[in-house]
Specification:
- With about 230 residues, the protein is mostly helical.
- It has 2 domains: about 130 residues, Arc Repressor Mutant, subunit A; about 80 residues, Arc Repressor Mutant, subunit A (Orthogonal Bundle).
- About 55% of the residues lie in helices and about 10% in strands.
- It contains 10 helices and 6 strands; from the N terminus they run ααβααββαααβααββα.
- The strands form 2 sheets. A 3-stranded antiparallel beta sheet has the order 1-3-2.
- A hairpin with a 7-residue loop joins β5 and β6.
- The C terminus is likely disordered.
Length: about 230
């Protein structure tokens, strides 16, 4: 997977999430869990899902609790170890994964990476991307890297990321404190404050981008027709 594909999917889903009813919203990680359960098509232990996302057990318990409360997954005690809960996507969960994938696909503008792909392929991308946890601050760094070193205003990053302005502003403030980005006043936009990567920020962004390049999207099963799903 390349950076532009990653950013296309994340931006599109961020927009979809904003337009969802508050009590129905899923984090990207929760959406990925649904896509993962649909892809493996068998019950998975909570510990296995935690390993897939590189998450701590309490974090995964919180995510699966939310999905279960919405009726999107079903949970049961393991056959051999009652302490190990297994999860499976419910019929409602499969339908939600399909619907969210279609909505995400529809939010990718023409000309951007994956704008002509299918909802099925979007599910595969989300499944693969679920193994790579990315905070809002990380997305800001990647956004600036994808801009080929050009400074961006807060509103340009809001548009590029599909995030709310307060989220982007708070992330930028944290990154400034960490020395990863710097604010540039009056850069080609009158009095507009723009943001650019520092050398340390570029190194951090490139490290994140390298991890993304290592993400492999599952291929279709042998014998199935259609385009390959590996990037």
């Amino acid at each position: 997977m390349d950076l532009r594909e990653f950013m296309s999917v994340r931006r599109a889903y961020n927009i979809v999430r904003q337009h969802s009813e508050p009590d129905e919203r899923l984090t990207f990680e929760e959406f990925a869990i649904l896509c993962h359960l649909v892809a493996v098509d068998c019950p998975l232990r909570t510990s296995d899902i935690a390993a897939y996302q590189g998450a701590l057990r309490p974090t995964m318990t919180h995510r699966t609790n939310h999905l279960a409360s919405l009726g999107l997954i079903e949970r049961a005690e393991g056959d051999l170890d009652r302490r190990n809960v297994v999860c499976v996507a419910s019929a409602a969960g499969r339908a939600r994964a399909e619907r969210l994938a279609e909505l995400t696909r529809a939010q990718i503008p023409s000309g951007r990476s994956l704008s002509r792909t299918s909802a099925e392929r979007i599910r595969k991308y989300v499944d693969a991307m679920g193994a790579f946890f990315c905070k809002a601050g990380d997305l800001v760094l990647l956004c600036l890297l994808a801009a080929d070193g050009e400074p961006l205003s807060i509103m340009q990053m809001v548009d590029a990321l599909g995030l709310l302005q307060p989220t982007v502003s708070m992330s930028v403030s944290s990154l400034v404190e960490a020395g990863l980005v710097t604010r540039l006043r009056g850069v080609e936009r009158g009095r507009t404050t723009c943001v650019a990567l520092t050398p340390e920020g570029r190194s951090a962004a490139e490290a994140l981008s390298s991890q993304i390049e290592g993400v492999v999207v599952r291929r279709k099963l042998r014998g199935q027709r259609g385009e390959k799903d590996e990037a």
